[in-house]
Amino acid sequence: MTRITMREAISQAIWEEMERDPKVFIQGEEVGVWGGTYAVTKGFYDHFGPERVRDTPISEAVIVGSAIGAAMTGLRPIAELMTINFAFVAMDHIVNEAAKLHYMFGGHFKLPLVIRAVGGGGRQLAATHSQTPDVIFAHFPGLTVVSPGTPEDAKGLLKSAIRSDNPVLFIEHAAMYQSRGEVPDGDYTIPIGKSKIQRPGRDVTIVTYCKGLELSLKAAEELAKDGIEAEIVDLRTLRPLDMEPVLESFKKTNRAVMVEEGWKSYGVGAEISSRIYEEAFDYLDAPIKRVAQKEVPLPYNRTLEQMALPQVPDIVSAVKEVLK
Amino acid sequence: MDKSEHLDLYHQMVLIRHLEENAAELYQQGKIGGFLHLYIGQEAVSTGLISARKPQDRVITAYRDHGVAINCGLSANEVMAELLGKATGCSKGKGGSMHMADPEKNFWGGHAIVGAHLPLATGLALGDMYQGNDGVTICMFGDGATNIGFFHEAFNLSKVWNLPVLWVCENNQYGMGTAVNRASAVPEIRQKADGYGIPNERIDGMDIMKVREAALGALEQVRSGKGPYLLEFLTYRYRGHSMGDPERYRQKDEVLKWEEEDPIGIYRKYLTSKKIASAKALNEIDTQAEEEIKQAVEFAESSPEPAPEELFTDVYVEEV
Question: Does B312 touch chain A (CB under 8 A)?
């Protein structure tokens, strides 16, 4: 095991897959000469050359659209969107083409495609550049939506995504590139569509993913001081959703809190709670609580922005409430 | 072109015409659902264009795709079965009129969001360029598609990356019911290519020989590595945008004027005046095509519905 940052984990995954398979290439805004706006592809251009590290115009529809076309021919493109907020200008290609071409043409086309996008708030980028719209994409059958919370998962899941024959939206968090964690040495993959217990506990189940994992782990430490042991289930993949570890944990703790950075309404927490009600109602000892972003566009001002984003104390108090 | 090639092209055109006329009837009978966009009047464009391609050249088009499917080599049976939503359709009954494809025939679909397939075409061409193939991607679209952002992003990228794409605008003069001069800032679509440094021509799309000649020249240029090229074909659809179009936006005599210039009629005149084929020989082809479509309708009507379990297949590729 080696301790590396999230940025290094993602970068290594792409580098190793490009070394492994000449059909893999990356394209997007500033991925080449610049080295990536988040420095994920630093050094790639010099090593792999302009054919495989393709700088594009600021032109998201054609960044995603051309990656779809190239994937239809059997290549394995990685289309990088500088931020997930720009996915809205490529929305048609993500939801109307990538998610549907395999089904709509009776299986004629395969799309071994990865769309990487960075989301999340907390960096004072104001309303248009700080969103966590993951659920919008997870709504569409045909898409796979992955959003890891640790460097180990990021590397292993991204490798699986690149090797997958399905279109995968891989969502990273802008404020997590410096997060560190242990990563196995050598080549490894982590299967897409598997939730994971990131912290065992007996008293309450916290269901979360991506940045929410970081917050939940901190909250769990706080709670442990009061003798409360929270079990944290990290979804890692939003579609296809693996409910088994969630239900298993819930049947043990009988209480749950949902934690996500996106808005509460119609969110990930809404979906998971609903499934718990549907599939484990008899195990329910308290109403499920949701911790999520306040229902406002994210403001620029640092204090206001932090007020809108979910925080560790919000999780702690939500857990205490479900345990009352 | 030898005689048999000419007769083959003529056969394709009349086969498409019969297919579309029968499809219109089946739609009126409620046997075809959804939208049905007919290609009647535009047959010379697709037939002439695709006759000029090499086997390695990919074709991708918009939702008015039945004729293009036939020209790419899909059978009338599988096209008709798809229209009827049957399991034997080219998309297993899941795509319908607007979503037909067969990559084995280098036909990359039928795409129903206006302009959205243009970025896909740049990717198909990138696939060939990346892998060192000498195929050209032929991307067909209507005049209406040239007013949406996708068109401009795709044109720009195709030139920046020097992609082997032959852009083909079928200017049938209406985007649904809005005439080109009411929707486009420039009167000739080809002018838009000038803005991206893409060479272009405007051609009579009712005369198959002119279409074919232009396509052969343009394909050669793209294949030689000179980058994308635009052909704008002036054509006309006799029928409404789709079934149920009240056609308040044009006069009957406008339609009649264009029908005098029928692409099948023009080709017939060419073939007979050049003594390539007699009227009698062409009439025999008409009868044969009519019979083929009759059989295609029988095939489609007697084909099974998709099995209920098909609802859940092909959402994802099963990973090995």
Answer: no
Q: Where does a domain end: A183, A214, A242?
A: A183
Q: Give me the number of domains chain A comprises.
A: 2
Tell me the pLDDT tens digit for each residue of A219-235.
999 999 999 999 999 99
Tokens of A174: 């802008």
What is the Cα–Cα distance from B118 to B138, expressed in whole angstroms? Answer: 10
From A107, which residue of chain B is nearest by alpha-carbon distance? B314
Dihedrals phi, psi of B279, to nearest 5 degrees: -55, -35
Which of A65, A105, A106 faces B120 most closely, judged by CB atoms?
Answer: A65
Tell if the CB–CB gap between B314 and A165 is shorter than 8 Å: no
pLDDT in tens, A128-156: 999 999 999 999 999 999 999 999 999 99
Catalytic residue numbers of A read 60, 129
Which chain B residue shows the shortest CA-CA distance from A69?
A: B123
The total of other beta-carbon atoms located within 10 Å of residue B307's CB is 10
Nearest residue on chain A to B94, alpha-carbon basis: A104
Domain that holds residue A313: 196-323
Token pair recorded at residue A35 = 């080295």
Whether A92 and chain B come into contact, CB under 8 Å, resolves to yes
What is A45-95 written as a DSSP string?
HHHH-TTTEEE--S-HHHHHHHHHHHHHTT-EEEEEESSGGGGGGGHIIII
- Tell me which residues of chain B, numbers 127 to 146, contact chain A at a CB-CB cutoff of 8 Å: 127-128, 130-131
Mutate to test the interface with B, among A105, A146, A160 (most CBs of B within 10 A): A105
Domains and CATH numbers, chain B: 3-303 (3.40.50.970)
Q: Is the pTM of this model over 0.90?
A: yes
DSSP A155: H
Separation CA A88–CA B40 (nearest Å): 37
**Of the candidates B286, B176, B151, B294, which has an alpha carbon nearest to the alpha carbon of residue B239?**
B176
A74: chain B residues, CB-CB within 8 Å: 127
Q: What is the ipTM of this complex?
A: 0.96
